[in-house]
Each structure stands twice: as C-alpha cells, then as structure tokens.
Amino acid sequence: MPDFHKYLGETVVGLFAIIAVWGLLFVAIKRDPGRFFWWPVAAVQVLLVLQIGVGLILLLTGYPLPQLLHMGYGVFAAVALVYAHMDARNKPDRPWAPFAWVGLFAFGLTLRALMTGLGT
Fold first, then answer.
1. For labelling alongside 56, which of 30, 33, 98, 113 has CA 20 to 30 A away?
2. What's the DSSP call for residue 85?
C-alpha cells in the first residue's frame, strides 16, 4: 500500500503540472483551452481524494507519518481545488483561469508532500 500511495502521489503531481502549464498558457494567450483541459482537472480531483483516503488508511493502520506537514500539503491542495471551483463561478468567460493558477499552487504543494513523504 505505501508504494501505491507513492505512485499515486507522483501521478497527482504530474497532473497538477499539466493543468498549470496548459491552463496558464491559455490564460496568457487569452483563449479557451478547450474541453480536453477539463479531463486532467477531473482526474486530479478524483485521484487527490483517493490519495488522501489511502494516506488516512496508512495512518490508521499504523504506518508512520513522515512529517505532519506531509499531510498538510495534501489537505491544502484539496482546499485550493475547492477555492478554484468557487472562483470559477465568478468568471463565466474564463472558468479555467482559477484552475490554472490553483494547478500551479497545488503542483508546488503536492510536490513538496511527495518530497517529505520520500524523506528528501
């Protein structure tokens, strides 16, 4: 299970990187990124919830928490996604923009979570 948590974490970090680069590119050129942009957004939301769930299972079954911040990084990334949903409602002409910025922020958070989990 710890290996699954690690690989899932790597996938989440990668998806947030894709969202950030793709979204911010289209924010910069002021064009809609298209419907395919929402696929990694949906995938990362599902996988992040799964990642948090697996982490909680590991914690409850006695697997040691590397650092308290490790858990905080993941939770803050999830909170940031909730913020993106709320902010996107206020931007009907550019609803992807909050997800692009939050993607960048959450990329940093989840990368740091991965690094603390791996002990680096």
1. 98
2. H
